[in-house]
Structures
1.
Amino acid sequence: MAETQTTEALSAAAADVLETMFFSPVMGEATPGASCSEPVLMARLKFSGGRSGSFTIRVSARAAATIAANFLGEETDDPEPGQVRDVVCEMANMICGSVLSRLDREAHFDLQHPELVETCGEPSLGSVCSLFEIEGGQVVLCLQLDSAA
Amino acid sequence: MAYRVMIVDDSRSMRAFVRRVMDLSGFEVDSCLNAANGAEALALLNEQAVDIILTDINMPEMNGEDFVRRMAEREELRSIPVVVVSTDGTQNRIRRLLDLGAKGYVVKPFSPEALRAELERVLEVENG
């Protein structure tokens, strides 16, 4: 699968999911670099089926709080940390599902439950990543596809 | 007309979001039951009636596929339309859920208008 195709699917899925479900439009591409210098939340999920691999999302804590507030509605201006973590996991699930559907509409995929990752890690070797800015900070998405059998 | 709705999803945030989007779309909700998985939903349905059910697929204990299958197997429940709300938009998955007995399918992300349109389409078909 071409890296360009994967990058385009990541960007399109992120823009679609963030705007439609989280009311947080993508403001532009971000420059790679010191994204671990500020507090971040990371979630990762594994998938299997047509292709297997993993998907990781890393979002600045400030942006995550904004996204969670938008997702949960007007009455929640300052969501609790547990709610923010729940929303980040939900976002990982939605973007991953959307990316995989865009890459292969005919395949069948099983997505595991997203898990929060405690450390601000770097993408796995062979990952294809997309970085962009939203209100409140940076979002990094990485898709790692296992080698086809 | 306002409808009695059940939302089945293991994410509390997602249940709240789906309810909020129904309100935003103008879909009239009379009452809304929440369940965290298929088993919890079936237990609630023993006690309370609903007009339509929205369910996720990936859930612990009893997932959406098993839930749809159980609903179709039980005569007293099979007339309640089930709409699947999932991130999985692959054709195989959609076909499989519809074959199992789901009456509608909404792929996340979805707009309020898209959700309302699918709920109304399903209810119109079911109610003639």
Note: Chain A has a mean pLDDT of 86.
2.
Amino acid sequence: MVGRNIARFFKYAFLTIAAVLSVFPLYWMVVSSTNANPAILRGSLIPGTNLFVNIQNLIAQQALGQAFINSIVNALSVSVVSIIICSIAGYGFEIFHSKAKDRFMAFLLVSVMVPFAAVMIPLFSLVANMGLMNTTLGFMLPMLSSAFLIMLFRQSARAFPHEMIEAARVDGLSELSIFIRIFMPTMKATYAAAFTIQFLASWNTFLWPRLIMTPGASSITMPMLLANLLSGYVTDFGVNMVAAFIASVPTIIVFFIMQRQFAQGIVGSVK
Amino acid sequence: MQTAKQEAKIKPFFTMTRKRGLTGWLFLSVASALIILTSFYPFVRAIEMAMYSGAGTRMQFAGLVNFQRLLIDPHLKQVLSNTFLFLLVQVPMMILLGLILAAMLNDPKLKGKGIFRTAIFLPCAVGLVAYSLVFRQMFAVDGIVNTALLTFGILDTPYNFLGTAWSARMVIIIGLMWRWTGYNMMFYLAGLQQIEPSIYEAARIDGANVIQQFRKITLPLLRPMILLTAIMSTTGTLQLFDEPFNLTNGGPGIATRTIAFHVFNVGFQQSPNLGYASAVALLIFVIAAILGLIQIKVGDKRW
């Protein structure tokens, strides 16, 4: 009994330390965004009153509003378009499946093994030749389709009751409207998981926009703005932290809304 | 079947089955075309580009020169060993820690499970550049880590974490662990929830202790999940860029420069050389493919 209590104590202690270490950098980021440089350098862990001054200084240095709007537009476009494209493909692979389609899917899955860094140079030339440098479309192109997302929707289409499709066909619904009116509303959890994955990935992606966008251009995204801050001469901790904080707000919101669905979506995808 | 037959009477040449097959291809066409355009086509182009040298419009066919240059590149060895260090130290540590945390959180009697899970998963909500910025300031000479170490009397003078090769590498590893452990843990938790609690119950009755349960039940049943996360983390580390670029700028010197960073430098900085950068990029693919195959082979075997 005593042994079990000690084990339990260590378990809670371990989990508490892990939780504190996980949250601390974020806590420090939020607190520092409200403090002035001297307080941050003293190691202050209590919120200050300098938040608005830091925001003003940030706006004076960088096109904050522009970058924020760009990031929102880019991330929403990527997420919405890609989950539509990939879900209809996953549905097509599963509901109309044939040997040829299965083989084709296996071929597409090879793309998961290709690291982005290995293809980024030709992708860069492609986007440059298409005249898509510094554009939303150029930003979106490599993120619109992924074999991983297709697999996710293919798995969820597998669990989808086929009798419902048959019934809808008898009722005279076209294949496309069966997908839109029956499959899409039923698979909300999968869509939520896919949306979360795509939103976080496209909001945070840095290397790709860094390649196709000029650091000073009006099309820059939030991660690029953060990187720009580092190239300045003076380091204002408060300004940097408020920028990191603002850049994290949308993903933290998405994270909290979608946390549950994300976990469910993962379970579904790897079953 | 009924509907298919009826349809067949009306359109004898274009049967329902064939029509459906075609609809299926139509449904998957856009996504597939995009994957081919953004993954397979660039891959083939990378092979072609690697055989050219020069810049911009003055690219000239150079045969295998770029691949020979891989052998004499003075930075490549350092860059590769940095990448492998991150891979071999960080990935196994993170997977193990993720597994331990997941096993602890899977205890149905644990109180505050939701809080622990959310807290440990939370770093995933922060972008890579944003957290690089935070860690860069935490570990700066005048940052909070040094302030704390000085206050507690562990150090007498501030330590230049990011200016010293080994500690800079450590900071990157700590950052990666911080950002990704919770992410991997969620995969294991999802996998653990598929395991019947009665298996653990039976093991406990048979006298298996916690560590035995972990080794004999948890690990084998989570093998597919572990394999998945191992492959994802390996590919992720092979293209590690955001952290070394923003946290240490690859420094001091090139002590934390990764292979993806090297591709960026060769291809887009100072005197851009897209041909040679493509050759280095192909090397990333070869390494990723070899490691992926090894992991699948090992993962398939019984432990």
Note: Chain A touches chain B through 93 residues (CB under 8 Å).
